[in-house]
Amino acid sequence: MPDEAAAEAKDSLFNYIERFSSVLVSAGFPPMPARVFVALLVTDSGRLSAAELAGMLRISPAAVSGGVRYLIQLGLVHKERVPGSRRDYYRMPGNMWDDLLRMRDQVMSRWTALVREGIDLVGADTPAGERMAEQAAFLEFATKELGQILGRWQEYRASEGG
């Protein structure tokens, strides 16, 4: 019976990973990175080897490789070695969400600068210039708000011990 309960728990976790990752996929995330991301999220240690990820997700190690490579590029996963081990391990950084928002904030600032440059090229008084001015205003607003959200998050973490 204990083996049966363990198998059932494993299946339930696998199904949860599949459901969660399908939500990420519907939001535009590639399927394999989504599955790897959720697997690392639900792991107590937050760290798994490629072989452990392959077993947990019921996929090949090659599929894991592509998934983690994508996540590493986004800064959502870090690759590390454990002393005494020859395996690579992949872990989810603890401050991942605020780092991700900071990166998005930088990207939006660059977009704003490019949109403003485009306004100068097409002319502010043209329909394109007016449309681009609206986009630039939104990006500036969103960048300001993200900065305030990140500041409030830091205050919240400090006060709540989060």
Measure the end-to-end span.
Answer: 39 Å
- Topology, number of strands: 3
Query: Helix/strand-derived class?
Result: mainly alpha
User: Secondary-structure element sequence?
Assistant: HHEHHEEHH
- Read across the widest sheet, the strand sequence of neighbours is 1-3-2
Which band does the percent of strand residues land in?
5-15%
Helix share bin? over 70%
- The shape is elongated
Low-confidence stretches: none
In round numbers, the mean pLDDT is: 90
Sheet having the most strands: 3 strands, antiparallel
Cα-based radius of gyration, to the nearest Å? 21 Å
Number of helices: 6
List keywords for this structure.
162 residues; mainly alpha; 3-stranded antiparallel β-sheet; 6 helices; elongated
Which helices and strands appear, and what pairs or packs with what?
Blueprint: H1 2-26, H2 31-42, E1 47-49, H3 50-57, H4 61-74, E2 78-81, E3 88-91, H5 96-122, H6 127-160
Antiparallel strand pairs: 1-3, 2-3
Helix pairs in contact: 1-2, 2-4, 3-4, 5-6
Short description:
This protein is mostly helical. It is built from 6 helices and 3 strands; from the N terminus they run H-H-E-H-H-E-E-H-H.
Model description:
- The chain is mainly alpha-helical.
- It is 74% helix and 7% strand.
- It has six helices and three strands.
- It has a three-stranded antiparallel beta sheet with strand order 1-3-2.
- The longest helix has 34 residues.
- The protein is elongated and about 75 Å long.
- It starts with a helix and ends with a helix.
- The mean pLDDT is 90.
